[in-house]
Write a structure and sequence with these properties.
alpha/beta, 9-stranded mixed β-sheet
Length: 292
């Protein structure tokens, strides 16, 4: 089985270097590592050249969807492609477990792993702490149970390439920059091809680095515009859309009443309101966030 790893990166030069060095320690080495930076400054080429495994640079337009599509264009004859965020640290056996899963379960087309700690919900996790969490994770009992899930978590997604190739599935570049919910859209368009699962055997830490994130105002707009766009496409249901939007607008409203911390709740709430105003005017579109 040929397994390649793809990483779309933006604004996290130092963290990316740590992640790439960590990837070279996998028990089962990737057959290729493809990295698509949003700009030349996103990657330390001298450091990359010092690594024990070759890293292939891919050129693509700025935006997580466009960068991931550029990687897909270079997938070649891979059997499985694993997309990691540039701040995701997989456990040493992650790719070995991916190979075992996709070999033993031919009807699985998408797999995601167990996130042992997720810095996205707080100030972020330093690389050293993330590595310590992995070192303490000594789970060795049987973890063969696979849990059906709606979509893979964007920080770690493994795809069977034959399913992608059959439908010519691409990440939707109408979702600009961070491309919020692009993982949901991509996975749901593959759902008819087979199972989407979460495996406890695939384990890692999402650092949740705060650099390279979409500003609050723009992200708040995406919190409304992107789910509605996916609803119109037919990727998601009305219930899913209303639940996601309602949860985020409520969190931003409550959070804006408190002193501002790491999350710009007031900026996000303002973006929510602009999106709802655009909805009433009939002009709501994910790309409008670029004008804010």
């Amino acid at each position: 089985m040929k397994i390649i790893v793809g990483i779309a990166t933006a604004g996290r030069r130092e963290v990316l270097s740590e992640t790439l060095e960590h990837l070279t320690r996998q028990d089962r080495k990737p057959d290729a590592i493809l990295v698509c930076p949003s700009s030349p400054d996103d990657i330390d080429l001298d450091f990359v050249k010092s690594l024990t495994q070759e890293i292939t640079l891919v050129t693509g337009s700025k935006g997580s969807c466009a960068q991931r599509n550029a990687i897909l264009d270079r997938k070649g004859h891979a059997d499985v492609i694993v997309f990691f965020d540039d701040d995701f640290l997989p456990r040493h056996d992650f790719l070995a477990e991916v190979e075992a899963l996709f070999t033993s379960e031919p009807d699985v087309v998408v797999a995601t792993g167990m996130v042992l700690a997720d810095g996205i919900h707080g100030p972020g996790i330093p690389v050293k702490e993330g590595l310590e969490i992995l070192a303490r994770d000594r789970v060795t009992e049987s973890r063969t149970e696979l849990e059906p899930v709606f979509n893979a978590y964007g920080c770690n997604m493994a795809f069977r390439v034959s399913a992608i190739r059959a439908d010519g599935t691409r990440f939707d570049e109408n979702l600009p920059l961070y491309g919020w919910q692009e993982d949901v859209d991509f996975c749901r368009r593959l759902a008819h091809c087979g199972r989407i699962v979460r495996s406890g055997a695939l384990r890692g830490v999402h650092l949740g680095n705060k650099r390279g994130r979409t500003p609050g105002l723009r992200f708040g707009y995406s919190q409304v515009a992107n789910p509605l766009y996916l609803l119109r496409k037919g990727s998601v249901s009305l219930r899913w859309t209303l639940h996601l939007m309602g949860r985020n607008v409520a969190a931003n409203t409550i959070g804006s009443l408190r002193s501002q911390g790491l999350v710009d709740r007031r900026g996000r709430l303002k973006g929510n309101l602009i999106a709802f105003a655009d909805l009433l005017r009939g002009r709501i579109d994910p790309s409008r966030m670029l004008e804010l």
